[in-house]
Amino acid sequence: MEELNPIEKLVVQAMQELGATKEEKKKTADDIAKKCNRPKSMVTNALVSLSNKSVVKRVVREKASGYYVESAPM
To answer: By residue range, what is the domain housing residue 24?
Structure first.
């Protein structure tokens, strides 16, 4: 598994604290950015990277996409 950078680790930790560990408990990038206290653009970039690394799963919805932790990094 690829190493996560500091912002990616922060995003995963925030998602776990928010309970976004299952598809039915997914959170938006706004929710995660508020929990991280980081700009939404920074969080969104981290979510895209985490999605590419298969750590986070993105679920497309009508309004805002939802995200949840698919496999927690070791």
So the answer is: 6-69
